[in-house]
Write a structure and sequence with these properties.
The chain has 366 residues and is α/β, with parallel strands linked by helices. Helix 2 packs across helix 3 (160-180) and helix 7 crosses helix 8 (294-303). The chain has 11 helices and 12 strands. Strand 4 (64-71), helix 2 and strand 5 (107-113) form a beta-alpha-beta unit. The protein is globular, with a radius of gyration of 19 Å. An 8-stranded parallel β-barrel has the order 3-4-5-8-9-10-11-12, surrounded by 7 helices. A two-stranded antiparallel ribbon has the order 1-2. Strands 6-7 form a two-stranded parallel sheet.
Length: 366
């Protein structure tokens, strides 16, 4: 694809969801930093690392910054070092981040999450194995008492009352997100975390109203969406992240079920589906290649009325532009590529012949 003039570069067209206009279609995927304090009064509280991390991508021209998976409860963390949004001390620290992101013309978003059986583990660069009480760990929980792997702790099977309590924690987290200044909330239903554990027949062996049929396995996800939508303002957008496939064939969650769920989520007030894959089972074989997850997003977009964002080994501006120009997605989410290059959006603008606002302090370099 040849370089596109500014008027035709799809990556740099604004995108509006409800009352929020995002300045371009280059969005930051949530990526855990595992850098908060693990215990004490500042457990789960954002600090200078988090501020600098998100501020760099905002000044770099990224349109929507979706903050890493932020736990709705202490037991909802992946590691003891995750960010949290279960108390007001955490909210106060997050306001500094959202204010700066907005000052750069970007939109601040947050992913609210519960890790379920994949919780109580160590930092990824320390192996990511399970940790016990001596390392500030806890007893993880899930849809069924099935561990993520042989090395992981067998989780507690949630009761109906406990499921309702967690649903309320998601709603409370959304309320705190609003108080912290976020304009977009994303519910984490992907990568084998708690909501995904309920969705997949591979990890959900329940025989009650939350297990078995598609309607039952999706019940928790829909109840969380309803609870969040009830407290999240009507004028602000709600996103849902999904693993469109567990890569386990019929043993797991499938692309067909993703399409069915997308239509259901649209009815319940979700404004865009963030389409990823995998994460439920460590032995799943995933055919990694540039843009390997884009077809899943494209299918949801073509078969439902729910807008989608594509993610997964999207690294080059022309590649991202082509995804949007071909109508395969409404936006692209960059993960590791934005870790490598916080100013990726500015490089893309140069390569595609588009214009992008530049901080006054940086004009001499543009």
């Amino acid at each position: 694809m040849s370089a596109a003039p500014a008027a035709f570069a799809a990556l740099f067209q604004p995108y509006t969801l409800r009352s929020v206009t995002i300045p371009n279609r280059i969005w930051m995927a949530p990526m855990c930093q595992y850098s908060a304090e693990a215990f004490g009064p500042n457990a789960g509280v954002a600090h200078d690392w988090h501020f600098t991390h998100y501020a760099a991508r905002a000044t770099g021209g990224t349109g929507l910054i979706i903050q890493e998976a932020t736990a709705v409860s202490p037991e909802g963390r992946i590691t003891p070092y995750d960010l949290g949004i279960w108390n007001d001390t955490q909210v106060e620290a997050l306001r500094r981040i959202t204010a700066f992101v907005k000052s750069q013309g970007a939109v601040p978003g947050i992913q609210i999450a519960h890790a379920g059986r994949k919780g109580s583990t160590d930092k990824t660069w320390k192996g990511g194995g399970p940790v016990g009480p001596e390392a500030h760990g806890w007893q993880p929980s899930s849809a069924s008492p099935l561990p993520f792997s042989e090395a992981h702790t067998v989780p507690h099977e949630l009761t109906t009352e406990e499921i309702r309590e967690i649903t309320g924690q998601f709603a409370a987290a959304a309320g705190r997100a609003l108080a912290a200044g976020y304009e977009v909330v994303e519910i984490h239903g992907a990568h084998g975390y708690l909501i995904g554990q309920f969705l997949s027949p591979y990890s959900n062996k329940r025989t009650d109203a939350y297990g078995g049929s598609f309607e039952n396995r999706t019940r928790f996800a829909v109840e969380v969406v309803d609870a969040v939508r009830e407290v999240w303002p009507e004028e602000l957008p709600l996103l849902f992240r999904i693993s469109a496939s567990d890569w386990l064939d019929e043993e797991g969650w499938t692309a067909d079920e993703t399409v069915r769920l997308a239509a259901l989520l649209l009815e319940h007030g979700v404004d865009l589906l963030d389409v990823s894959t995998g994460g439920l089972a460590p032995h799943a074989r995933i055919p990694l290649a540039p843009g390997y997850q884009v077809p899943f997003a494209a299918r949801v977009k073509s078969e439902t009325a729910l807008p989608v964002a594509a993610v997964g080994l999207i690294t080059e501006p022309e590649q991202a532009e082509k995804i949007l120009a071909n109508g395969e997605a409404d936006a692209v989410l960059l993960g590791r590529e934005l870790l490598r290059d916080p100013y990726w959006a500015r490089r893309a603008a140069r390569e595609l012949g588009a214009e992008i606002p530049v901080p006054d302090q940086y004009h001499r370099s543009w």
